[in-house]
């Protein structure tokens, strides 16, 4: 019989471990999920949360499961670092204070913290007592890329669940199967989603997101011949495209609050508003990440063509622009341009204006890739 753990793709041991734990009523209170980016840690954490919240132990079809998996359940909180260098002490203190509050709708609460490797000493110290002795109705799941990147004081208080790297061929197959798309589309979606299978499946199934990717590739195709004003216009359009889905998400959030207004007290409403704000911020960062991920994958493809390795190209629907770029640049310039993308991603993490980041990225890329006076 299908259940919520069928959504934990590419991780059969994790899937069966939690199926058994839920069935036996032996789910712990503090976990650390460790695995590479794209291995499905957050989806697995949401599946565990749904199984704990669902009266049937994670049926995957009831409103509770659906709401949890869409990160809309008010008693399932998902966090990301708010500081450029990691979690702020004030952020952790807010989480600790929230843990002590009663659930809004369910009998328990689930806390999912992304990038637990960015819990510094001060923020970790503020969290230790809660992590070691959470209230009986609270489960905390931390996510990190490696166990060695997590402070020992955090590691010692959690049950570690390892996630394996999902090979590319397997990832493509999973996206094809779950999004019902061709391998080429699945591969392109994976590149746009930094290898995350769950995100790539949603991306590949969405004509709007695939069109967004196409517009990014079109900008890159025009970069060599574009002047400064062209590039500033390209950047503005990409930022507007990246922000467009947020309006719909915000409208849905406001409608949901309005529909439940009669059942929510002031404290519960504030908690839901804070959750909605976190979701909106995370989605905005994800959409900007699509821009930089597509640029990186395009640069990688140009590099492969410069190295005479056409079989390794990912964006097969952009062959003409890739060939044109490769004819006017070289591998060394591509490597330098790749570094520019990483700089842009760091600037975005530090909350530098997205418009400024993309402006600078495209202007500098044009120079590094194509300017004959720029050595490379």
Keywords, please?
376 residues, alpha/beta, five-stranded parallel beta sheet, 15 helices
Describe this structure in words.
- By secondary structure, the chain is of the alpha/beta class.
- The chain is 60% helix and 7% strand.
- The mean pLDDT is 93.
Shape: globular
If you compute it from the alpha carbons, what radius of gyration comes out, rounded to the nearest whole angstrom? 22 Å
* Main sheet characteristics: 5 strands, parallel
Sheet-strand content, in percent, reads: 5-15%
Number of helices: 15
The percent range for helix content is 55-70%
Poorly predicted parts: none
SSE order, as H and E? HEHHEHEHEHEHHHHHHHHH
Task: Write down how many β-strands occur, each being a DSSP E stretch of 2 or more residues.
Answer: 5
Q: What's the overall average pLDDT, rounded?
A: 93
> How does the helix and strand content classify structurally?
alpha/beta
Strand order of the largest sheet: 2-3-4-1-5
* Multimeric state: single chain
User: How far from one another are the termini?
Assistant: 58 Å
